[in-house]
Amino acid sequence: MEDALIRMENVEKWYAGFHALKNINLTVRRGEKIVLCGPSGSGKSTLIRCINHLETIKSGRIVVDGTALTDSQKAVDTVRREVGMVFQQFNLFPHKTVLENCMLAPMRVRKASKAEAEATARKYLERVRIGNQADKYPAQLSGGQQQRVAIARALCMEPKAMLFDEPTSALDPEMVKEVLDTMIGLARDGMTMICVTHEMGFARQVADRVIFMADGEIVEENDPETFFHNPGHARTRAFLGEILAHH
Ligand code: ADP
Fold first, then answer.
1. Atom 1, ligand 1: residue with shortest CA distance
2. Ligand 1, from 18, 87, 163, 196: best to mutate by most atoms within 8 Å of Cβ?
3. Which of the listed residues 40, 63, 121, 245 has the most CB atoms within 10 Å of its CB?
4. CB within 8 Å of 130: residues ≥ 6 apart
5. 153 touches 105 (CB < 8 A)
6. Is the pTM of this model over 0.90?
7. At residue 247, does pLDDT exceed 70?
8. What is the pLDDT of residues 169-197, one digit of tens each?
9. Which atom of ligand 1 is closest in space to residue 40's alpha carbon?
10. What is the pLDDT of residues 1-55, one digit of tens each?
11. Which residues are CB-neighbours of 70 under 8 A, at least 6 positions away?
12. Which residue minimizes the CA distance to atom 12 of ligand 1?
């Protein structure tokens, strides 16, 4: 089995005339936890959205667990089965219960039976410590609880990697910790993760590597200790100064 789970090689992404990703090279090892940070508009969200083909790239190569991401629907489906994604907005179906939200994709995509899908859903709802809310509708839950459901829903597909796109930035401050704790638990269990977040405490605690982006480029990447205490680039230092002033 190849050590690299996700590989991006010379990836270029344009939105019409705007160059959003510039020569991105990134290899994520199995079990590795990466925190992606940088100013707003630097391309973080675009980068992770390319990994499960929510955005198409202009050139370069993205390989996930041996599958090269081409425009073929088969490749896209394969990669999306392997890579779970959690967004800033929870995107739960409002007219379905928590349990039903978690059962949908495994039944549709993995062709799980109803009983299997329900057992899996209950397992992961327990794992995010929300098993007792299974029969509620999303609107009956707090934002933090809804985000934990969104994490459980992604886990129900038993992904090999999880991508998080600012999962706590739409939450009220008192709910941030419960979601970060859930993510820390996942990290401890060995999940491969790429997290776009400004939660630098989380980065310190779980990241194997912190990557700093600016203007569509990876400017710097390092272990958290070096990244926070001895950043190599002026832009990283400026960013850290701003972030730390706000947190
Ligand atoms: P970040 O996640 O670092 O805030 P994004 O990846 O969301 O950055 O965006 C990077 C840049 O690409 C921004 O300048 C943004 O305005 C632009 N962009 C993002 N999505 C689109 C889109 N769908 N169409 C045009 N421009 C976009």
1. 41
2. 18
3. 121
4. 98, 145, 148, 149, 152
5. yes
6. yes
7. no
8. 999 999 999 999 999 999 999 999 999 99
9. 4
10. 678 999 999 999 999 999 999 999 999 999 999 999 999 999 999 999 999 999 9
11. none
12. 20
